[in-house]
Design a protein that fits this description.
It comes from Streptomyces physcomitrii. Its cofactor is Mg(2+). Its EC number is 4.2.1.68. Keywords: Lyase, Magnesium, Metal-binding. With 440 residues, the protein is of the alpha/beta class. The strands form two sheets. Strands 4, 5, 6, 7, 8, 9, 10, 11 and 12 form a nine-stranded mixed sheet that branches. Strands 1-2-3 form a three-stranded antiparallel sheet. Helix 14 packs parallel to helix 15. The longest helix is centred in the first third of the chain and has 22 residues. Bound molecules: magnesium ion (MG).
Protein backbone atom coordinates (compact mmCIF):
# COMPACT_ATOMS: atom_id res chain seq x y z
CA UNK A 1 0.00 0.00 0.00
CA UNK A 2 1.31 3.47 -0.84
CA UNK A 3 1.35 5.58 2.30
CA UNK A 4 -0.44 8.91 1.98
CA UNK A 5 -1.13 12.01 4.05
CA UNK A 6 -4.44 11.38 5.81
CA UNK A 7 -4.92 14.41 8.05
CA UNK A 8 -3.78 17.94 8.72
CA UNK A 9 -4.90 18.91 12.22
CA UNK A 10 -4.61 22.43 13.62
CA UNK A 11 -4.51 23.82 17.16
CA UNK A 12 -4.79 27.38 18.53
CA UNK A 13 -2.28 27.32 21.41
CA UNK A 14 -1.79 30.37 23.65
CA UNK A 15 0.36 30.88 26.73
CA UNK A 16 -0.50 33.67 29.22
CA UNK A 17 2.98 35.23 29.13
CA UNK A 18 1.69 38.82 29.26
CA UNK A 19 1.00 38.39 32.99
CA UNK A 20 4.75 38.35 33.79
CA UNK A 21 5.76 40.92 31.12
CA UNK A 22 7.94 38.21 29.58
CA UNK A 23 8.60 39.22 26.00
CA UNK A 24 7.65 42.87 26.53
CA UNK A 25 9.25 45.40 24.19
CA UNK A 26 8.61 48.89 22.88
CA UNK A 27 6.15 47.73 20.23
CA UNK A 28 4.66 44.68 21.93
CA UNK A 29 3.94 45.54 25.57
CA UNK A 30 1.82 42.51 26.50
CA UNK A 31 2.34 39.45 24.28
CA UNK A 32 0.66 36.14 24.97
CA UNK A 33 3.11 33.87 23.18
CA UNK A 34 1.11 31.62 20.88
CA UNK A 35 1.46 28.95 18.25
CA UNK A 36 -0.77 28.15 15.31
CA UNK A 37 0.16 24.50 15.48
CA UNK A 38 -0.23 21.85 12.81
CA UNK A 39 0.12 18.07 12.79
CA UNK A 40 0.42 16.19 9.50
CA UNK A 41 -0.63 12.54 9.84
CA UNK A 42 -0.15 9.60 7.47
CA UNK A 43 -1.32 6.00 7.12
CA UNK A 44 2.29 4.73 6.96
CA UNK A 45 3.13 1.78 9.20
CA UNK A 46 5.86 3.79 10.98
CA UNK A 47 3.23 5.98 12.65
CA UNK A 48 5.40 9.09 12.26
CA UNK A 49 3.79 12.55 12.22
CA UNK A 50 5.03 15.90 10.97
CA UNK A 51 4.73 18.78 13.44
CA UNK A 52 5.01 22.45 12.62
CA UNK A 53 3.75 25.84 13.74
CA UNK A 54 4.01 29.51 13.30
CA UNK A 55 4.44 31.95 16.15
CA UNK A 56 2.04 34.79 17.00
CA UNK A 57 1.58 36.84 20.16
CA UNK A 58 -2.05 36.17 21.00
CA UNK A 59 -5.06 37.83 19.41
CA UNK A 60 -5.26 36.81 15.76
CA UNK A 61 -3.88 33.35 16.35
CA UNK A 62 -7.30 32.05 15.24
CA UNK A 63 -6.77 33.88 11.92
CA UNK A 64 -3.41 32.17 11.54
CA UNK A 65 -5.03 28.80 12.24
CA UNK A 66 -7.73 29.50 9.64
CA UNK A 67 -5.02 30.26 7.05
CA UNK A 68 -3.37 26.90 7.74
CA UNK A 69 -6.74 25.18 7.39
CA UNK A 70 -7.13 26.82 3.96
CA UNK A 71 -4.09 24.82 2.78
CA UNK A 72 -5.42 21.43 3.87
CA UNK A 73 -6.64 20.23 0.47
CA UNK A 74 -3.17 20.73 -1.02
CA UNK A 75 -1.69 18.30 1.46
CA UNK A 76 -4.27 15.54 1.98
CA UNK A 77 -3.79 12.46 -0.21
CA UNK A 78 -0.17 13.18 -1.17
CA UNK A 79 2.16 10.21 -1.30
CA UNK A 80 4.35 10.37 1.80
CA UNK A 81 7.53 9.07 0.17
CA UNK A 82 7.31 11.43 -2.80
CA UNK A 83 6.47 14.39 -0.55
CA UNK A 84 9.40 13.75 1.78
CA UNK A 85 11.77 13.18 -1.14
CA UNK A 86 10.89 16.60 -2.54
CA UNK A 87 9.20 19.04 -0.12
CA UNK A 88 9.98 21.77 -2.66
CA UNK A 89 7.11 20.59 -4.86
CA UNK A 90 4.61 21.18 -2.06
CA UNK A 91 6.26 24.51 -1.28
CA UNK A 92 5.78 25.65 -4.89
CA UNK A 93 2.19 24.34 -5.02
CA UNK A 94 1.25 26.21 -1.84
CA UNK A 95 2.88 29.46 -2.95
CA UNK A 96 1.33 29.00 -6.38
CA UNK A 97 -2.31 28.55 -5.33
CA UNK A 98 -3.63 31.26 -7.59
CA UNK A 99 -6.55 32.28 -5.34
CA UNK A 100 -4.78 32.14 -1.99
CA UNK A 101 -1.81 33.96 -3.55
CA UNK A 102 -3.97 37.09 -3.68
CA UNK A 103 -3.75 37.26 0.13
CA UNK A 104 0.02 37.83 -0.18
CA UNK A 105 1.74 37.21 -2.41
CA UNK A 106 4.34 35.49 -0.24
CA UNK A 107 3.79 37.69 2.79
CA UNK A 108 1.76 37.91 5.95
CA UNK A 109 -0.66 35.44 7.48
CA UNK A 110 -1.01 33.25 4.39
CA UNK A 111 2.73 32.95 3.90
CA UNK A 112 3.32 32.14 7.56
CA UNK A 113 0.66 29.42 7.22
CA UNK A 114 2.63 27.98 4.30
CA UNK A 115 5.73 28.05 6.51
CA UNK A 116 3.97 26.07 9.25
CA UNK A 117 2.82 23.36 6.82
CA UNK A 118 6.12 23.16 4.94
CA UNK A 119 8.07 22.95 8.20
CA UNK A 120 5.79 20.12 9.38
CA UNK A 121 6.61 18.22 6.20
CA UNK A 122 10.36 18.73 6.76
CA UNK A 123 9.90 17.45 10.32
CA UNK A 124 8.26 14.33 8.90
CA UNK A 125 10.96 13.90 6.23
CA UNK A 126 13.78 14.16 8.76
CA UNK A 127 12.04 11.75 11.15
CA UNK A 128 11.59 9.22 8.34
CA UNK A 129 15.30 9.54 7.57
CA UNK A 130 16.08 9.01 11.27
CA UNK A 131 18.08 12.26 11.48
CA UNK A 132 17.78 15.62 13.20
CA UNK A 133 16.91 18.17 10.52
CA UNK A 134 20.34 19.84 10.66
CA UNK A 135 22.00 16.56 9.72
CA UNK A 136 19.33 15.69 7.16
CA UNK A 137 20.08 18.98 5.39
CA UNK A 138 23.86 18.85 5.83
CA UNK A 139 23.98 15.29 4.44
CA UNK A 140 22.00 16.26 1.33
CA UNK A 141 23.70 16.71 -2.03
CA UNK A 142 24.20 20.33 -3.15
CA UNK A 143 22.18 19.85 -6.35
CA UNK A 144 19.23 18.48 -4.39
CA UNK A 145 19.36 21.40 -1.93
CA UNK A 146 19.41 23.79 -4.88
CA UNK A 147 16.35 22.00 -6.30
CA UNK A 148 14.52 22.84 -3.06
CA UNK A 149 14.88 26.60 -3.58
CA UNK A 150 12.45 28.72 -5.56
CA UNK A 151 14.78 30.99 -7.54
CA UNK A 152 11.98 33.06 -9.04
CA UNK A 153 12.77 36.73 -8.26
CA UNK A 154 16.29 35.85 -7.03
CA UNK A 155 18.42 35.27 -10.12
CA UNK A 156 19.50 38.92 -10.46
CA UNK A 157 21.36 38.36 -7.17
CA UNK A 158 21.92 34.60 -7.01
CA UNK A 159 21.68 31.93 -9.72
CA UNK A 160 21.17 28.20 -9.14
CA UNK A 161 24.71 27.57 -10.44
CA UNK A 162 26.19 30.04 -7.92
CA UNK A 163 24.13 28.47 -5.14
CA UNK A 164 25.42 25.01 -5.99
CA UNK A 165 28.99 26.31 -6.02
CA UNK A 166 28.50 27.92 -2.59
CA UNK A 167 27.22 24.60 -1.24
CA UNK A 168 30.05 22.62 -2.80
CA UNK A 169 32.63 24.99 -1.33
CA UNK A 170 30.77 25.17 2.00
CA UNK A 171 30.89 21.45 2.73
CA UNK A 172 34.71 21.30 2.65
CA UNK A 173 36.01 20.52 6.13
CA UNK A 174 32.56 19.49 7.26
CA UNK A 175 33.73 16.38 9.17
CA UNK A 176 35.95 18.41 11.50
CA UNK A 177 33.25 21.02 12.00
CA UNK A 178 30.65 18.38 12.80
CA UNK A 179 32.91 16.92 15.49
CA UNK A 180 33.27 20.41 16.96
CA UNK A 181 29.52 21.05 16.72
CA UNK A 182 28.70 17.80 18.51
CA UNK A 183 31.23 18.57 21.22
CA UNK A 184 30.74 22.27 21.81
CA UNK A 185 27.44 23.26 20.18
CA UNK A 186 26.59 26.50 18.36
CA UNK A 187 27.06 29.93 20.01
CA UNK A 188 24.03 31.62 21.54
CA UNK A 189 23.17 35.00 23.01
CA UNK A 190 20.42 35.73 25.50
CA UNK A 191 17.57 38.24 25.49
CA UNK A 192 16.18 37.05 28.82
CA UNK A 193 17.62 39.96 30.90
CA UNK A 194 16.46 42.71 28.60
CA UNK A 195 12.66 42.79 28.39
CA UNK A 196 11.36 46.30 28.66
CA UNK A 197 8.93 45.57 31.47
CA UNK A 198 11.60 44.25 33.84
CA UNK A 199 12.92 46.32 36.77
CA UNK A 200 16.57 47.44 36.91
CA UNK A 201 17.06 44.93 39.72
CA UNK A 202 15.73 42.07 37.57
CA UNK A 203 17.81 43.29 34.62
CA UNK A 204 21.03 43.26 36.72
CA UNK A 205 20.25 39.89 38.23
CA UNK A 206 19.52 38.27 34.87
CA UNK A 207 22.54 39.92 33.20
CA UNK A 208 24.76 38.53 35.95
CA UNK A 209 23.13 35.15 35.46
CA UNK A 210 23.82 35.36 31.70
CA UNK A 211 27.53 35.79 32.39
CA UNK A 212 27.50 32.89 34.83
CA UNK A 213 25.79 30.77 32.17
CA UNK A 214 28.63 31.45 29.72
CA UNK A 215 26.94 33.84 27.29
CA UNK A 216 29.20 36.36 25.58
CA UNK A 217 26.37 38.54 24.27
CA UNK A 218 23.11 39.82 25.76
CA UNK A 219 20.35 41.97 24.28
CA UNK A 220 18.25 44.79 25.69
CA UNK A 221 14.94 46.07 24.42
CA UNK A 222 14.95 49.84 23.82
CA UNK A 223 12.86 52.49 22.13
CA UNK A 224 10.07 53.46 24.52
CA UNK A 225 11.81 56.18 26.54
CA UNK A 226 15.34 57.48 25.92
CA UNK A 227 16.14 58.33 29.56
CA UNK A 228 15.07 54.83 30.62
CA UNK A 229 17.17 53.30 27.84
CA UNK A 230 20.26 55.25 28.87
CA UNK A 231 19.79 54.15 32.48
CA UNK A 232 19.15 50.49 31.57
CA UNK A 233 22.12 50.35 29.16
CA UNK A 234 24.33 51.83 31.89
CA UNK A 235 23.08 49.27 34.44
CA UNK A 236 23.67 46.40 32.01
CA UNK A 237 27.09 47.61 30.90
CA UNK A 238 28.18 47.97 34.54
CA UNK A 239 27.21 44.37 35.20
CA UNK A 240 28.71 42.78 32.08
CA UNK A 241 31.83 44.92 31.70
CA UNK A 242 33.39 46.06 28.41
CA UNK A 243 34.12 42.68 26.79
CA UNK A 244 30.66 41.15 26.59
CA UNK A 245 28.64 42.22 23.56
CA UNK A 246 25.40 44.09 24.23
CA UNK A 247 22.90 44.35 21.38
CA UNK A 248 19.85 46.63 21.52
CA UNK A 249 16.48 46.02 19.87
CA UNK A 250 13.91 48.73 19.03
CA UNK A 251 11.28 46.42 17.51
CA UNK A 252 10.48 48.86 14.66
CA UNK A 253 9.64 51.72 16.96
CA UNK A 254 11.37 54.57 15.12
CA UNK A 255 11.37 56.64 11.96
CA UNK A 256 14.70 56.68 10.13
CA UNK A 257 15.74 60.01 11.69
CA UNK A 258 14.71 58.91 15.20
CA UNK A 259 16.60 55.64 14.74
CA UNK A 260 19.78 57.50 13.91
CA UNK A 261 19.43 60.01 16.74
CA UNK A 262 18.46 57.44 19.39
CA UNK A 263 21.17 54.95 18.41
CA UNK A 264 23.79 57.71 18.59
CA UNK A 265 22.51 58.66 22.05
CA UNK A 266 23.18 55.07 23.18
CA UNK A 267 26.57 54.83 21.45
CA UNK A 268 28.54 55.54 24.65
CA UNK A 269 27.42 52.10 25.91
CA UNK A 270 28.97 50.44 22.85
CA UNK A 271 25.93 48.57 21.49
CA UNK A 272 27.00 45.77 19.15
CA UNK A 273 23.96 46.05 16.90
CA UNK A 274 20.75 48.02 16.67
CA UNK A 275 17.96 45.59 15.79
CA UNK A 276 14.80 46.48 13.87
CA UNK A 277 15.44 50.23 14.05
CA UNK A 278 12.50 50.96 11.75
CA UNK A 279 9.88 49.34 9.52
CA UNK A 280 10.97 45.91 8.29
CA UNK A 281 9.78 46.87 4.80
CA UNK A 282 11.97 49.97 4.61
CA UNK A 283 15.01 48.69 2.75
CA UNK A 284 16.46 52.11 1.93
CA UNK A 285 15.67 53.37 5.43
CA UNK A 286 17.79 50.59 6.91
CA UNK A 287 20.58 51.50 4.50
CA UNK A 288 20.44 55.14 5.65
CA UNK A 289 20.48 54.13 9.32
CA UNK A 290 23.42 51.81 8.69
CA UNK A 291 25.46 54.55 7.03
CA UNK A 292 24.74 56.95 9.89
CA UNK A 293 25.27 54.77 12.97
CA UNK A 294 28.40 52.81 11.99
CA UNK A 295 30.34 51.26 13.70
CA UNK A 296 27.13 50.12 15.45
CA UNK A 297 25.83 47.32 13.24
CA UNK A 298 22.30 47.18 11.83
CA UNK A 299 20.35 43.93 12.21
CA UNK A 300 16.91 42.91 11.03
CA UNK A 301 14.88 39.97 9.76
CA UNK A 302 12.32 38.60 12.22
CA UNK A 303 9.58 40.52 10.39
CA UNK A 304 11.09 40.41 6.91
CA UNK A 305 8.36 38.87 4.82
CA UNK A 306 10.24 36.78 2.30
CA UNK A 307 13.46 36.06 0.40
CA UNK A 308 12.87 38.94 -2.01
CA UNK A 309 13.00 41.59 0.72
CA UNK A 310 16.12 39.93 2.15
CA UNK A 311 17.63 40.07 -1.34
CA UNK A 312 17.00 43.81 -1.48
CA UNK A 313 18.36 44.44 2.04
CA UNK A 314 21.57 42.71 0.95
CA UNK A 315 21.74 44.39 -2.46
CA UNK A 316 21.26 47.80 -0.85
CA UNK A 317 23.97 47.21 1.77
CA UNK A 318 21.30 47.85 4.41
CA UNK A 319 22.24 45.26 7.06
CA UNK A 320 25.33 43.96 8.82
CA UNK A 321 23.51 41.04 10.45
CA UNK A 322 20.72 38.94 8.90
CA UNK A 323 18.17 37.66 11.41
CA UNK A 324 16.16 35.00 9.64
CA UNK A 325 13.22 33.45 11.45
CA UNK A 326 12.23 29.80 11.19
CA UNK A 327 8.48 30.46 11.15
CA UNK A 328 7.97 33.87 9.50
CA UNK A 329 8.71 32.97 5.87
CA UNK A 330 7.59 29.98 3.78
CA UNK A 331 9.44 27.32 5.74
CA UNK A 332 12.74 25.50 5.30
CA UNK A 333 12.77 25.91 1.51
CA UNK A 334 12.66 29.69 1.67
CA UNK A 335 15.14 29.77 4.55
CA UNK A 336 17.56 27.78 2.38
CA UNK A 337 17.23 30.58 -0.17
CA UNK A 338 17.88 33.20 2.53
CA UNK A 339 20.93 31.36 3.89
CA UNK A 340 22.30 31.12 0.35
CA UNK A 341 21.73 34.84 -0.24
CA UNK A 342 23.52 35.68 3.02
CA UNK A 343 26.44 33.47 2.02
CA UNK A 344 26.63 35.09 -1.41
CA UNK A 345 26.78 38.57 0.14
CA UNK A 346 29.03 37.52 3.03
CA UNK A 347 26.63 38.73 5.73
CA UNK A 348 26.52 36.72 8.97
CA UNK A 349 23.21 35.10 9.94
CA UNK A 350 22.20 35.51 13.60
CA UNK A 351 18.68 34.05 13.70
CA UNK A 352 15.75 35.45 15.60
CA UNK A 353 14.38 33.08 18.22
CA UNK A 354 12.45 33.07 21.48
CA UNK A 355 8.68 33.15 21.36
CA UNK A 356 7.25 29.65 21.41
CA UNK A 357 9.51 27.01 19.91
CA UNK A 358 11.50 29.34 17.66
CA UNK A 359 14.73 28.33 19.42
CA UNK A 360 13.83 24.67 18.91
CA UNK A 361 13.40 25.16 15.17
CA UNK A 362 16.04 27.65 14.15
CA UNK A 363 19.01 25.89 15.77
CA UNK A 364 18.75 23.32 12.97
CA UNK A 365 19.12 25.98 10.26
CA UNK A 366 22.23 27.56 11.83
CA UNK A 367 23.85 24.18 12.39
CA UNK A 368 23.24 23.24 8.75
CA UNK A 369 24.66 26.64 7.72
CA UNK A 370 27.80 25.99 9.76
CA UNK A 371 28.38 22.48 8.44
CA UNK A 372 27.47 22.93 4.80
CA UNK A 373 27.47 26.57 3.75
CA UNK A 374 29.05 29.42 5.75
CA UNK A 375 31.52 27.02 7.40
CA UNK A 376 32.12 29.37 10.35
CA UNK A 377 30.54 30.53 13.60
CA UNK A 378 32.58 33.74 13.68
CA UNK A 379 30.30 36.68 14.59
CA UNK A 380 27.35 34.30 14.46
CA UNK A 381 25.02 33.65 17.39
CA UNK A 382 21.51 32.27 17.72
CA UNK A 383 19.13 34.20 19.96
CA UNK A 384 18.10 32.36 23.10
CA UNK A 385 15.24 33.10 25.44
CA UNK A 386 14.48 30.87 28.39
CA UNK A 387 10.71 30.62 28.03
CA UNK A 388 8.26 27.80 27.35
CA UNK A 389 10.80 25.11 26.38
CA UNK A 390 9.18 22.71 28.83
CA UNK A 391 6.26 22.27 26.43
CA UNK A 392 8.42 20.57 23.81
CA UNK A 393 9.16 16.86 23.58
CA UNK A 394 12.80 17.55 22.64
CA UNK A 395 13.53 21.03 24.05
CA UNK A 396 16.71 22.92 23.23
CA UNK A 397 19.69 22.14 25.43
CA UNK A 398 22.22 24.87 26.25
CA UNK A 399 25.63 24.54 27.86
CA UNK A 400 28.32 27.21 28.34
CA UNK A 401 26.41 29.66 26.17
CA UNK A 402 25.99 27.25 23.26
CA UNK A 403 23.06 25.36 21.75
CA UNK A 404 23.91 21.66 21.88
CA UNK A 405 23.25 19.81 18.63
CA UNK A 406 19.89 18.00 18.78
CA UNK A 407 20.13 14.24 18.37
CA UNK A 408 16.46 13.25 18.05
CA UNK A 409 15.17 12.80 14.49
CA UNK A 410 13.08 15.68 13.11
CA UNK A 411 12.78 19.45 13.51
CA UNK A 412 12.29 19.54 17.35
CA UNK A 413 8.83 21.00 16.71
CA UNK A 414 6.67 18.59 18.66
CA UNK A 415 4.81 19.77 21.78
CA UNK A 416 3.62 17.52 24.57
CA UNK A 417 -0.03 16.46 24.17
CA UNK A 418 -0.67 17.73 27.70
CA UNK A 419 0.52 21.21 26.74
CA UNK A 420 -1.84 21.23 23.76
CA UNK A 421 -4.73 20.13 26.00
CA UNK A 422 -3.94 22.74 28.66
CA UNK A 423 -3.27 25.81 26.51
CA UNK A 424 -5.65 25.26 23.57
CA UNK A 425 -7.64 28.49 23.22
CA UNK A 426 -10.32 29.09 24.39
CA UNK A 427 -11.37 25.64 25.62
CA UNK A 428 -8.13 24.13 26.99
CA UNK A 429 -7.88 23.39 30.70
CA UNK A 430 -6.02 26.61 31.55
CA UNK A 431 -8.18 29.02 29.55
CA UNK A 432 -11.47 27.43 30.56
CA UNK A 433 -10.51 27.76 34.25
CA UNK A 434 -9.27 31.28 33.62
CA UNK A 435 -12.57 32.34 32.07
CA UNK A 436 -14.41 31.04 35.15
CA UNK A 437 -12.11 32.98 37.51
CA UNK A 438 -12.57 36.14 35.51
CA UNK A 439 -16.32 35.62 35.60
CA UNK A 440 -16.43 35.82 31.80
MG1 LIG B 1 13.92 41.41 17.94
Amino acid sequence: MTARITALDTFDIRFPTSRELDGSDAMNPDPDYSAAYVVVRTDAADGLEGHGFTFTIGRGNEVQVAAINALREHVLGREVAALCADPGTLNRDLIGDSQLRWLGPEKGVMHMAIGAVVNAVWDLAAKRAGKPLWAFLADAEPDWLVSQVDFRYLTDALTPAEAEELLRAGRRGRTEREALLRERGYPAYTTSPGWLGYSDEKLSRLARQALADGFTQIKLKVGADLEDDIRRCRVARQVIGPDIRMAVDANQRWSVAEAIEWTKALAEFDPYWIEEPTSPDDVLGHAAVRRAVAPVKVATGEHVQNRIVFKQLLQAGAIDVLQLDSARVGGVNENLAILLLAAKFGVPVCPHAGGVGLCELVQHLSMFDYLALSATTENRVIEYVDHLHEHFVTPVALARGHYLAPTAPGFSAQMHPRSLDTYRYPDGVFWAADALTEGR
